[in-house]
Write a sequence for this structure.
């Protein structure tokens, strides 16, 4: 995995943790309106997406069909004017969470993700194989890795917005 990808994974996670670590339990679990997730739910969604990405890459690696799929503009994930519905598998729990519990889940899922990636001996195969992404369609496996930090960036911006909305309510 390239240093750039590694740095981006590290940087976006640090930004996310900075955004949430000083929140109270109430701020963390309040929903600005019934159509929005709480910050806790957004974070839980990120954990679930990271876990699902491990599965997607593992399945993609096992696929025999090796026809090269076109590269996608994964930067589109950052365009928050385009709304996506989260697939059921990555929908967060509705139950409230403690901030530290979520930070622990985030740390644990990132460690598992990086450990999984380190087991792939020939990293070049990630650009040759693909797996269907719910929002982007057939996606090369190396771009699945890239979408992790872009997706996290997208949701960190969402968290900043939720914090502002909660501040204006009080």
């Amino acid at each position: 995995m390239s240093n750039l990808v590694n740095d981006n994974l590290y940087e976006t996670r640090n930004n996310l943790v900075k955004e949430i670590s000083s929140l109270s339990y109430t701020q963390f679990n309040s929903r600005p309106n019934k159509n929005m997730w709480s910050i806790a739910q957004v974070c839980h969604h990120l954990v679930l997406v990271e876990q699902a990405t491990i599965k997607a890459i593992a399945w993609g690696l096992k696929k025999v069909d090796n026809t090269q799929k076109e590269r996608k503009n994964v930067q589109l994930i950052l365009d928050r004017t385009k709304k996506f519905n989260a697939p059921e598998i990555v929908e967060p729990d509705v139950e409230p969470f403690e901030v530290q519990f979520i930070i622990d889940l985030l740390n644990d899922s990132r460690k598992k993700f990086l450990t999984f990636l380190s087991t792939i001996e020939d990293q070049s195969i990630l650009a040759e194989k693909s797996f269907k992404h719910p929002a982007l369609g057939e996606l090369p496996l190396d771009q699945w890795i890239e979408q992790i930090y872009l997706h996290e960036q997208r949701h960190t911006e969402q968290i900043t917005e939720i914090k502002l909305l909660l501040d204006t309510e009080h």
Remarks:
- The longest helix spans residues 141-169.
- The first strand starts at residue 130 and ends at 133.
